[in-house]
Amino acid sequence: VFETRIGFPTSRALGLHEAHLLSASKDGRLAVLLGQDAGTRWGTLAEVPASGGAPRRILDEVLFADWSPDGMSLAVVHRTAGKVRLEWPPGRVLRETAGSMGGIRVSRGGNLVAVVDNPSFGDTRGSVAIVDRTGRVVCRTTDEWNDLGGVAWTPDDREVWFAATKDRVTTEIR
Q: Over the stretch 74-107, which tens digit does the pLDDT of each residue have?
């Protein structure tokens, strides 16, 4: 993980070896994944200042995380007891599946989270679900896609964009 500042042409390593950046908070904290299992990509969620320093471990068996807009809590995809859970904050279960979830992003309004919902564990086939803070699915893509990637909210929170393909050849932003 590297830091680059506006007006400076060089980058500086933060000293986080084998860390994967998941999300940055407005107040300069980074959510990173440490010690990822090469076969599954699950790892340990940790928080670290953007200026660098020692990571503070938060939760094991995490795949994705995203900060809420106020920087006070994280939404996470957490694996425990043979289930995959969407938790927000960690420990508060919104959804649970025997399949998998990924690519989560909290809305700028802080009241919704978009998540890739894969019905089968280890399969990238699925749909995008938008979940409120009570765990209710308020919207789901009508189609199931053969391969589905990350999600992003538009600046006005009115749409969720995602990368998907039906034919596993041509991936497009939807």
A: 999 999 988 999 999 999 999 999 888 888 999 9
Cα–Cα dist 68/124, whole Å: 25
* Dist. CA 28–CA 45, nearest whole Å: 16
Q: How far apart are CA 119 and CA 158, in angstroms?
A: 25
What amino acid occupies position 42?
A: W
- DSSP lists the bridge partners of residue 127 as 117
The pTM of this model reads 0.88
SS3 string, 22-52, reads EEECCCCEEEEEECCCCCCCCEEEEEEECCC
Q: Report the range of poorest mean pLDDT among 57-66, 103-112, 164-173.
A: 164-173
- Residue 38 gets the label, from left (phi > 0), alpha (psi -120 to 50) or beta, of alpha
Distance set, CA 167 to CA 26, 78, 144 (Å) = 38, 29, 12
φ and ψ of 127, to 5 deg: -140, 170
CB 113 within 8 A of CB 92: no
DSSP states of 79-96 as a string?
EETTEEEEESSTT-EEEE
Give strand ranges (E) for 73-136: 74-80, 83-87, 93-97, 100-106, 112-118, 127-132
